[in-house]
Amino acid sequence: MTERRNITLAVTGAGGTRMARFVLEALVKDERVAQVDLMVSQAGRQLIAHETGRDASGPAADLVLGAPAMDKVVAWDPEDLTGGPTSGSYPSWGMLVVPCALGVAGRIANGMANTLIERAADVMLKERRPLVLCVRETPFNLIHLRNLTQVAEAGGTVYPMIPTYYNIPQTVDQFYEEFTVRLLSFIGLPQTDYYAYSGVESPAHHDRTGRA
Ligand SMILES: Cc1cc2nc3c(=O)[nH]c(=O)nc-3n(C[C@H](O)[C@H](O)[C@H](O)COP(=O)(O)O)c2cc1C
To answer: Ranges for the Flavoprotein domain (predicted)?
Structure first.
C-alpha cells in the first residue's frame, strides 16, 4: 500500500452541506487516509444547522456527521490562523472544500488568507498540492467566473457540485454518493463500488445508499 495520506477538508457556508458528511465518512473509511484535518467556517456551521436542525455550536466533526466524531478526524478552529494547516511544513497531502461558497473561492483566488481555511488553501497552491473547490452556486456571475478561472490558473481544481444525471439518481442521497465516489477517485483514491458508464444500452440505475 502507498503511504497513507492526511487530507484537509473544509466546509463553508454554501448549500449542500450534507455532501461534507458523505465525503468525511468516505475519507474516514478509506484505509489510504491516515488523518482528516477538518475545518468548518462560521457560515458553514450556520448552514449545517439550517439544513439539518443540529446545534451550530457543537464540535465540528459531530456537526458535520450528526454523530460523535470518528477516529482520524482532527478539528481545527478556522478563526485561529496559528493552526497546523497554516504552514507548508504541515503534512497535508491535499485539500477539499465541500461545499465551497463563492465568497471563499474569491478570497482564495485573490490570496486573501483571512481564515485558516483560506490560508490552508493558499498553502496548497503555493506548495503545488491538490486543492479542490466543490463550489455551489447558480447562476455564476462574471466575478465568480473570473475568480474560478484564477484558481484554475493557480493550479487548483474547480469541481462544482453538479449531479451526474446520467446515472439516474433515484434519491438525493444517490447524487451525494455518486459525487463523493467521483471526488475521491479524482484525488487518487479510486473507489470500487460505483457506477461506471458502459454504453447507452446498459441500465444506468444503482442504489446502495440507506442513510437516514
Ligand atoms: C441560507 C444560506 C445559503 C447560502 N448558500 C450559498 C451558496 O449556495 N453558495 C454560495 O456561494 N454562498 C452561499 N451563501 C453565502 C455564504 O454563506 C457567505 O458568502 C459566507 O460569507 C461564506 O463564507 P464562509 O463560509 O467562509 O463564512 C449562503 C448563505 C446563506 C445564509
So the answer is: 6-174
Please provide the average confidence, as pLDDT, over all residues in the chain.
92
Contact 102 CB / ligand 1 (< 6 Å): yes
Please indicate whether residue 136, judged by its CB atom, sits closer than 6 Å to ligand 1.
Answer: yes
Report residue 85: phi and psi, to 5°: -65, -5
> pLDDT for 29-59, tens place per residue?
999 999 999 999 999 999 999 999 999 998 9
Whether 104 lines ligand 1, by a CB cut-off of 6 Å, is: yes
Residue 95 inside a domain? The answer is yes
What band does 2 get if pLDDT is binned at 50, 70 and 90? Answer: low
- Phi then psi for 169, rounded to 5 degrees? -60, 130
